[in-house]
Amino acid sequence: ERTRKGGLPIRLEHRAKGKVVTVIANVTGDAEGLLRQLKKQCGAGGVLREGAIEIQGDHRNKVEAFLKG
């Protein structure tokens, strides 16, 4: 789902010890399948938490291109 302004719900969060995580919110449908594909596309680890996908690192551009394509 898109945000109210029409953008994709992708944001960057800073975690403890300087870690950066790309978060995709409002995930519906086959979230586990999407997580697998995004992890492969970005070459990074990730996890599914409370309806949101978290990918380790700053991969906003790759995730947005994947979701639009």
Which structural class fits the helix and strand makeup? alpha+beta
Overall body shape: globular
- The average pLDDT is 90
* Major sheet: arrangement of strands: 1-2-4-3
Percent of residues in helices? 25-40%
Count of separate DSSP helical elements: 2
Can you summarize the main beta sheet? 4 strands, antiparallel
Q: Tally of extended strands?
A: 4
The stretches of 5 or more residues where confidence is low (pLDDT under 50) are none
Q: Termini distance? A: 15 Å
SSE arrangement, N to C: EEHEEH
Q: In percent, how much strand structure appears in the residues?
A: 25-35%
Rg on CA atoms, Å: 11 Å
Labels describing this entry:
alpha+beta, globular, 69 residues, 4 strands, 2 helices, 30% helix
Describe this entry's structure for a reader.
By secondary structure, the protein is α+β, with helices and mostly antiparallel strands. Helix content is 30%, strand content 28%. The protein has helices at residues 31-42, 60-68, and strands at 10-14, 20-24, 46-49, 52-56. Strands 1-2-4-3 form a four-stranded antiparallel β-sheet, with helices on one face. The radius of gyration is 11 Å and the shape is globular. The mean pLDDT is 90.
Question: Gist?
Answer:
The chain is an alpha+beta fold. Helix content is 30%, strand content 28%.
List the topology elements.
Layout: E1 10-14, E2 20-24, H1 31-42, E3 46-49, E4 52-56, H2 60-68
Antiparallel strand pairs: 1-2, 2-4, 3-4
